[in-house]
């Protein structure tokens, strides 16, 4: 039952700006679930990525196909600028790759450091409050604009990528950082959410591949793995649809209050438990 609860929390918190990794680290500690490292988290993240692919299947399919069209036209000497003009989804594909690079490099080179943070729930609880502050400040300053894929540039994509790389720290929200980065760069609000969600696919798939051996050797019954994965899939699908509505209504500041409350409660609970 505890693992299924972890799947539920993962699904709900992955695309709300409240840090799924932070919630899982703390919840595992409070429930007494002994799963060292981040392999189980990687498995649950993979389940949420399947939900992204399911929800945005049409867009992701077009991005994938347009990328190969762009390679074909590049081989024929066509300029990238003209390819992007003729095939906006090809531009989407290339800019997603640009946004993925910072997180991939930082995650790979500092993997041991970030892995150790998954064993520090008190630090994670503090990072939840930091995420709350960032969301609160960002909500006041960044209201978004009317930029869609046709108008964004490479620097926009790189900026969002660096924002995503910060969220490797447990307790810092990936969706929160990337959505706020998109709003700062004047993305239209619904497109900001879509870019953030689809951007999660390559970085989490990469993390899953990196952890696949550990996932297969987790000491967890197969049926519990499946049930927790299904729970994460269904709950994350619903969370994405709800979050888009919240973002369009400019109500994400409420997540700050939730994060500060959770951070305070878990911090003092963990300190008492440690004492």
Helix count from the secondary structure assignment: 13
| Average predicted confidence as pLDDT | 88
The total of beta strands comes to: 0
Radius of gyration: 19 Å
SSE run: HHHHHHHHHHHHH
**How can the largest sheet be summarized?**
none
Shape, principal axes of CA atoms: globular
Report the structural category.
mainly alpha
Description:
By secondary structure, the chain is an all-alpha fold. It has one domain (2-274). Helices cover 80% and strands 0% of the residues. It is built from 13 helices and no strands. The chain has helices spanning 2-15, 20-31, 39-55, 57-75, 80-86, 88-109, 111-117, 121-141, 154-166, 174-184, 189-216, 222-248, 253-274. Helix 3 (39-55) crosses helix 12, helix 5 (80-86) crosses helix 6 (88-109) and helix 8 (121-141) runs parallel beside helix 10 (174-184). It is globular and about 65 Å long.
List its traits.
single chain, 275 residues, mainly alpha, 13 helices, 0% strand
Structure at a glance:
The protein has helices spanning 2-15, 20-31, 39-55, 57-75, 80-86, 88-109, 111-117, 121-141, 154-166, 174-184, 189-216, 222-248, 253-274. It is mainly α and 275 residues long.
